[in-house]
Specification:
The protein has strands at about 1-5, 10-15, 20-25, 30-40, 45-50, 55-60, 65-70, 75-80, 90-100, 110, 115-120. By secondary structure, the chain is an all-beta fold.
Length: about 120
């Protein structure tokens, strides 16, 4: 029903920046969208989410004031601008679509991309 494709990951040094993109197709306008991240052997954690219908945005405490989530005017692509990257930000970043608010609760019903890896060296 919803297809999500992430891009923009890579290897950066601590303090650097990356911009992730998520291209959405299908019935994506029926859902809020957001970003999660997961390291090997770890849980998939919430990063940021956006609900364009009511202009709501929320972030995990660990990325507040460093990451910015946005969508383009057509709402076909979602972005995550990551600044001041830290080694602990290293993870595979996943795009998600689902009911607001996005989080661990209800995550099994979300649509997911395949992820884009981000590695931050110290």
């Amino acid at each position: 029903q919803v297809q999500l494709v992430e891009s923009g990951g890579g290897l950066v040094q601590a303090g650097g920046s990356l911009r992730l993109s998520c291209a959405a197709s299908g019935r994506s306008n029926s859902y809020a969208m957001g970003w999660f991240r997961q390291s090997p052997g770890q849980e998939r954690d919430f990063v940021a989410a956006i609900n364009w219908r009511v202009s709501q945005i929320r972030y995990a405490d660990s990325v507040k004031d460093r990451f910015t989530i946005s969508r383009d005017n057509a709402m076909g692509t979602m972005y995550l601008e990551m600044n001041g990257l830290k080694p602990e930000d290293t993870a595979v970043y996943y795009c998600a679509a689902g009911p607001w608010p996005l989080g661990k609760i209800g995550s099994r019903q979300y649509f997911w991309g395949k992820g884009t890896p981000v590695t931050v060296s110290s």
